[in-house]
Please model this.
Amino acid sequence: MSVSDTAATQPDIVSEFEDVFSGEGKLEEKLHLEIDKSVTPVALPVKKVPFPVKEPLKQELERLVEKGILEPVAVPTEWISSMVVLKKSNGKIRLCIDPKPLNQALKRNRYPLPVMDDLLAQLANAKVFSVVDARNGFWHVHLDEEISFLIAFGTPWGRYRSTRMPFGISPAPEEFQRRLEHALKGLEGVMPIFDDILVYGVRETQAEALSDHDVKIRALFQRCRAKGIKLNQEKLKLRQKEVKFMGHVIS
Model:
């Protein structure tokens, strides 16, 4: 249910912030994690890759190296995680790692994650909503070199390491949440939970709530530009009366 008819005279905010919807993000502060050195390092064997997946996987590895997300590893590493290849609904390859043994050794900072029931209480009198998705959310967090080599993984073409925080390591959700909350601190009507950011407009009438919402989402896009946060235009839900957010329907 869109309120775009009410907002038709508003400037095209997506075009205005086109740079926020392109490229890969970079949040401040590289990630360093402590490791429990009493845990014995594990070097997992390379998993077999089905023949039909090999060429697309190789192309994806080359693409990620070209983008600076991955780097080949040519030195010894004590820890080697498994590679996991997933096929997206659009047919493309998603490359993940399975660092189960490494997760036993990684120390977590235990940053508190949001509780949805607490956040819902803040939405009284909200009438207009947008949901914004952080593009490749975890990749916004750059790894320091020591941690990057710890998260090396094996492929049929040798080992690689990630320069960005990958999916799969146990501290990833709380580390991303902490950095995103810090980057968006002070923005009224903006709720970040993992990759998704809810923006809501509050007033007595629909028109007033829409105006309030537009001020808030402009402030969000300006902050994203300033802090190096990149958004996914394909998943943008803009100026809605009802949205799905973190498993809830909000209206």
Remarks:
- The helical segments are 13-16, 51-66, 100-103, 116-120, 145-150, 172-183, 206-227.
- Residues 87 and 93 are 5 Å apart (CA to CA).
- Residues 1-11 have pLDDT under 50 and may be disordered.
